[in-house]
Amino acid sequence: MSVPADEPGNPAHAIFERFLRAGECREVLGCFVELCQQLGLQGSGLQLYHGLKAALNYWNAKALWSKLDKKAGHKDYDQGTACAGTKCLVVGAGPCGLRAAIELALLGARVVLLEKRDSFSRNNVLHLWPFTIHDLRALGAKKFYGRFCTGTLDHISIRQLQLILLKVALLLGVEVHINVRFEGLVPPTGKAGGWQAVLQPSSSPLTHYEFDVLISAGGGKFVPEGFKRKETRGKLAIGITTNFINRHSRAEVEVAEISGVARIYNQKFFQNLYNKTGIDLENIVYYKDDTHYFVMTAKKQSLLKKGVILQDKADIESLLSPDNVNWDALLSYAKEAANFSTNYCLPELEFALNHRDLPDVDMFDFTCMTRSENAALVWEHNGSRLLLGLVGDCLVEPFWPLGTGVARGFLAAFDAAWMVRRWAAGTPPLEVLAERESIYQRLSQTSPDNTNKNISQYSIDPATRYPNINLQAIKASQVKDLYLVGTVEVDHKRKSDNRLSTAPGDVYEELLSWCQASTAGYPGVAVSNFTTSWTSGLALCALIHHFRPDLVDLDSVDPQNAIRTHQMMLDIAEQELGIQPVLSSAEMATMAEPDRLGLITYLSQFYEVFRTSSEVEVSKKPLSPRGTRGAILFLSKLQKSRNLTHKRAQDSAQKDTEAKRSRRDTEPVRERTGENSDACYFCGCRVYILERASAEGRFFHRGCFQCRRCGATLRLGDYAFDEEEGHFYCSLHYPNPPSVDLPQDEASALPDGDADAAAHPPSEAGSPHVSPMERAPSPPQPTPAAPQPGEEPGEVEDTADAGDMEEQELLAQPGRDVREEEVPRAEPQGTAEEGEESGGRRKIILTPLEKLSLSTLNLTSEAEPEPPLKPARLRPQAAPEALPALGQGQGAWKQKEGKTDMEKGRWYKLECPDKQSSQSFQDVLYPHLAHEEPA
């Protein structure tokens, strides 16, 4: 029997008020147990919540009940029956674990939550997105913490957030157990049994609790069996957090917060800080909550100079190890930065204490960010299935400068609850996993700007939060590897064979063992480390040859020329496998201990590429163009229409390259003297592995890869390189190839338009030879000249292949890039003269899309060399009498294609038979003047 609590002076009222104001984890749990005992309530789940509502008829409680009732009445919860009968175990009482437990309780599931600690002591302050503020208010956060987001505040300490969520979870019937550590899973021993947990202490009554859903929120260092982690490493980043006691004095209230100041936006502030204190920071944030909370990113050189870090070490773990940090200097560093950033307005700064009763100051490395490859998986053993999901830091480790941790953690908690709802509804497991992975793809991209703006409509349904989300982006067939059958231990070993462990020592040993197994049996190869074993280049050759023997010819490898061998393997890996080099060939050939990490990083890429080679057959289908008919015609004619100038330039460049390579190959191996893969080729600054790109054996920042002449950003695979000068260019500004020289006496007398004609004089037979830019026969012209034998006046030679109608249709299509005049086409009436090519050259007109497609193809020609191309001329068509003045020893009129002209203009050149004089001029001929003689 419950005791009515609406009477004045009822002790339950006072207990409830103590429960609302409780500020410690143990105090909250004690007050709640006392309240249930006072009201005579037992049980868990929503049944307990409804009992509390009925028994505690108290005005302060009624306001809270109304908020929770409104929340529980959402259609997604089906009045608390959506997950009825589902048993869940949530590991971790952090903000994300508590938030997931609340949603599961609202769905009607039985929820047991484990926490290995018995206190909430994290004073660090979290930035809240608008939807998280709205969500917490809907749960009654103001009832538990009156100063929650008052005014413009958009942050809260982790400790206060945990207390709010813990109280809500208890009211909704979540069973919370503290001082219990989760150690692992116990599969069911029989068909009638269920999944259980290995717990410490083993005497806990929860060791016999059977569940079918496990939600892990144990933090970034705790990931259940079966999940794999991915690591992203960036620039060295050292963070410092510190908390000072907030006495809430008038002077402290008046100090303005710093929501986030980055060096790039306020350089003067950081420069003054450095000049006056010697403290060099990248950014700093200051929030006021229960404490004065500061978080900053410090530069390593500043920490070394101030004595915070005793010795500079390459390994970040050794650099920040306790024995390499001066604790007193760290406290002084943090306090000095806090004082300066607040203009020394915070009086009597005193460090708050953490759970170890030490000053709450921490220095940490966030150079490496980790995330899980998958958000969920299913285990089946003896016919019993277990759904596992991740939320919080063990799913995606947050990047604190962006303030995304709790916001994305809440989104992941909602996504996990939706997954459990689908699971309880009987949806096939593979469909549940596929949908969860589809949603997970969006999580790392979320921000307040790209989520739905109507935050009041947010629910566990992903469609209410993510705009235009495709819940079927990943198909069920793609997640079969996430459905595991068998015991935990057996499956974990099977899966771990194909992936590197996350422990640093395990990574080294596992990668080394893989390299040894892959290179075993190759002559001259004995891999025992990641330095000297790779200097000859033979080990890398053996590694690639083991998996792709089609790429490496071992007979062509020179074991005496390590640099050349390494360069050849680096090129193969980059071009054929898509593996970007991390070290240069010279660095690999003179491997030193500092390069060990770079080599491990490089070989890890081979591991990722080759680890599935036994399962997936590598496709070796030749590339084929996928252009339109015009593109196909272009390719069919390309080898026959190579420009002589370009060919000469290529031949010359090839000879120069071979000569330089031969000189380089004969040079002895020199020790590196400054320029290496750690320095950008362009700016000279250090370039880290994550931001490094390479081309032509040079390493650089991606942003520094620019054209030497115009400064345009270049793309890998779309650039020109001057090996002699060592400069990179875009395709427009690459130094011009060698041109065909003209005799000085002729070239000086010709205008620009005729220089090309003089460079290619007509053939002895007088046959027309179409220039490379000309791909269609020129129309008949009124230029009078003597006809050739066997021809009637007015006949024009057609250089097109008879019957090639498909190409003629292309020439007539509208919307093409036409570079010649569109004039009527004469019917072919003559035949090619002797000495003339039977297949004339014609212009293939391409659309811009076809040109773009063809620009990506490898069009290297192996055709035989051609004689120099000759300029276009038309054969004489009119009788000699048409030009009596010019036909009498003054020269003959020759027609040459001119440049663009609005009125169908032509360039005419008067060539004298004695070759002693030559003149050119332009005469504009209109269609109705086609048969007039030139003046």
Could you explain the architecture of this structure?
- By secondary structure, the chain is α+β, with helices and mostly antiparallel strands.
- Among the domains are: 80-116 and 179-229 and 374-478, 3-Layer(bba) Sandwich (FAD/NAD(P)-binding domain); 235-366, no CATH class; 504-610, Calponin-like domain (Actin-binding Protein, T-fimbrin, domain 1, Orthogonal Bundle), CATH 1.10.418.10; 752-935, no CATH class.
- Helices cover 32% and strands 14% of the residues.
- It is built from 27 helices and 25 strands.
Short description:
The protein is an alpha+beta fold and 935 residues long. The chain has 27 helices and 25 strands. Strands 5-2-1-8-17-16-18 form a 7-stranded mixed beta sheet, with helices on one face. Strands 11-12-13-10-14 form a 5-stranded antiparallel beta sheet. The chain has a 3-stranded antiparallel beta sheet with strand order 23-24-25, covered by helices on one side.
Largest sheet: 7 strands, mixed
Mean residue pLDDT = 74
**How many DSSP E strands?**
25
Cα-atom Rg, whole angstroms? Answer: 39 Å
Assign a percent range to the helix content: 25-40%
Q: Which CATH class of the domain at 80-116 and 179-229 and 374-478 is shown?
A: Alpha Beta
Low-pLDDT segments, ≥5 res: 1-6, 489-504, 613-649, 662-675, 737-840, 859-865, 872-935
Q: Indicate the CATH topology of the domain at 80-116 and 179-229 and 374-478.
A: FAD/NAD(P)-binding domain
Biased composition (Pro residues): 777-787
Region (Disordered): 643-671, 739-843, 915-935
Organism: Corvus moneduloides (New Caledonian crow)
GO molecular function: actin binding; F-actin monooxygenase activity; FAD binding; metal ion binding; NAD(P)H oxidase H2O2-forming activity
